[in-house]
Amino acid sequence: MTKEEAIKVNSISEEYNYISRQKCKCTGEYDKVSQAVYPHELLDQIKAVCKNCKAEKDFWFNISSFFGKM
Predict the structure, then answer these.
(1) Does pTM surpass 0.85?
(2) Closest C-alpha to 6, from 62, 44, 54
(3) In what order do the strands lie in the sheet with 56-62?
(4) Can you give the residue ranges of every domain in the chain?
(5) What is the pLDDT of residue 68?
(6) Residue 70 has pLDDT above 70, yes or no
């Protein structure tokens, strides 16, 4: 997934829920490894690794609906 393909979400828990439903090509589940916020782009990046095959994947989320609005 690239920045340009960022998924619109309404909360951080929605990000985590999305990742928990994704499966690796080997059908394994992902574990979150790190998270970074890019405030000027209103993006959140979560790096994850497959529990089975250890493949790494970046998930990008558009956080414009809630970032800085609390």
Answers:
(1) yes
(2) 62
(3) 7-8, 56-62, 43-50, 30-38
(4) 3-62
(5) 78
(6) no
Measured distance CA(61)–CA(41) in Å, rounded? 11
**pLDDT tens-digit profile of 15-67?**
999 999 999 999 999 999 999 999 999 999 999 999 999 999 999 999 999 88
Alpha-carbon distance values, 58 to 27, 44, 68, 69, 70 (Å): 17, 10, 23, 25, 26
Residue 33 neighbours by CB distance under 10 Å? 12
Q: What secondary structure letter does DSSP report for 6? A: P
Cα Dmax for the chain: 39
> Do 57 and 26 touch, CB atoms closer than 8 A?
no
